[in-house]
Amino acid sequence: MKQYSYIDFLAQFGIRSAHPGGMACTESIFEQESIMEEMTILDVGCGLGETASYLEKKFACQVYAIENHPIMIEKAKKKLEENKNRIMLRDASIEALPFGDGVFDYLLSESVLSFVHCRKALTECRRVLTNHGVFILNEMTLLQPLSENEKKELQSFYGFTECYEVHQWKDLLCQVGFTKIDTLNVPLRGTKKANQIDLSVELNPVLLDMLDEHERLVKKFDGKIGNVILRCEK
User: Fold this and answer.
1) DSSP H or E segment with residue 77
2) Which residues lie across from 196 on neighbouring strands?
3) Could you tell me the pTM of the whole model?
């Protein structure tokens, strides 16, 4: 029987906003930003394109997006074509961004960095930003230190490359050259669900078992893992 990664699970179920807080969180973040039409934004690891579509609609600026999961990028292309978006979608990895230096005014990462080589990805993110460009990340974080067995349990299921506490995220951002790193306290509003599952997908028993395991881990690590939203300048 085929084995699936957590990212495969998200793609197969068509979960549109799997990042912490969902679209309600994203909307709250960008209500605090002044983005002009002439600016450019890059959404790294765009998933099914929900955030990229929102950013283009809200700011009417040029939005770029990258994704390298084959199912997600296929679904994102279909969505963007249906919506007649002008978003420039590329099949690429955050660890090797296919853009020149100093291209983007804003760069956004939502639940991406925990799954990749973080230092390499952050170095790339900083490289493609303009001087004084803004990098916003919304990522999983540890709210308290975990035992090695607890970390292995999370990494085994989710495929995390590392599990960072907030101060470790900030240290790493400083090390790759980001400045003025601020923690954003973003209130969630409304009742929008973060994870909306596409039930039209064939309900593979393995995927259903993964859904059960995900829910078990969420309950088990409640109060131990959460998310951090950081706003950084180059």
Assistant:
1) helix 70-82
2) none
3) 0.88
